[in-house]
Structures are given as C-alpha cells and as structure tokens.
Sequence to fold (216 residues):
Amino acid sequence: MSFPAFNFDNIRKEPLGTVYVVDDDADVRDSMRRLLESQDYRVEAFESGESFIAKYDPNAIAVLLLDQRMPGMPGTEVQDHLIARKATIPIVFLTGHGDVPMAVNALKKGAADFLQKPVKIEILLPLIAKLLNEARENRVQSERQSLNEAMLSKLTPREQQVLERIVAGRLNKQIADDLGISIKTVEAHRASIMDKTNSGTVADLMRVVLGASQNH
Fold:
C-alpha cells in the first residue's frame, strides 16, 4: 500500500510569541508587521498608546516595540501605565526623536532597550528573540512559584510550625520538644507535609519552600 507524499509546508507553525508594535506611522507598522510575521511572530499593531492599552493582554508571552513621540499618550506614558499595572512585558523603544536623557530615564524604569530609527534588522531580531525567551522562562518560573505557594497554603498552622523546623534542620525529637508534642505526632505531621507538597525527599521539600519564596 502506498501513501501520498505529505506536504510539510501545510503544517501551520505556532507563533514564536507576540510582538506588539505601537507607532503612529502606518508605514512603520506595516513594514514591522511584514518583517516580524516573516519570522513566525504574531504581530499586533496599534497607532496609539491608548489603543494598545485597551487591547493589551498581560497573559501573553510578548515584547512591546514602542514609539516615543505620538499624538496623545507618548511612549514614556505608556511605560508608566504598564509599570503602574505591574506589567512585566519587556519594552523596546524605537524612536526617531530620542535623546540621551529620555533614553536613560526609560532604561532606569526598566525598558529593555532604546533604539534609534531606522533600526537595524540584525540588531532588532536577535533582541526580540532574546527578550521573548526570557519572558517564557519568567512565565515558567512564575507558574512554578504559584504552584509551590498553593501546595504550602494547604498546610495547617501546626504543619507550618513543623515545616519551619524541618527547614531549620531540626530532628523529629527536637521538633517534638520544641512544640510539646510526641515524636509520633511529629512524624504524622511530617508525612502529611510531604504528601501535600508532593515531596518524596527532604530535598524535594526544600525545593518547594525555596521556590515559593523566590522574589519575596
């Protein structure tokens, strides 16, 4: 039995990530869209800071290419708005009107880069790839942290007390003396803690505790 040749070109590629382009110049938006879509990025283009903010999805793995001088809300105000929302999206300013103080201020506030137009493709594309990769890694870390926090939140107050002492390196007998309970009770709490945190070993448990406390 023979099968027809499979055309792999028909497989729809998943976008590598979302790139938001915010620029009041339609030619810039169109050229950026063509360039980035040719690299398998999902592109959403906006003519103003206000229209971007109205549609921005904080859950997207994304990078923001942001013009500075636009009618209405300038790029720096868009950045301030995102900071106020505690948004973590990396911002790359692309502007033909930038100056050194403006760039320094944007970078101090957390912008990833500040590039003059016309930006070189060989600079822009590697930068976008790097920032999207970092955004994915940060998302994985954030989700892992949330999972660890959720597991620890299941512990009773007494189990929390036992956990604190396990983390401090106290032995079961020492924990029992500390809390005025029997060793068997400590062992029962310890088993429950291991079960609720999906930990097979103390090393696993330590990873959960440390993972939940990251960035706190």
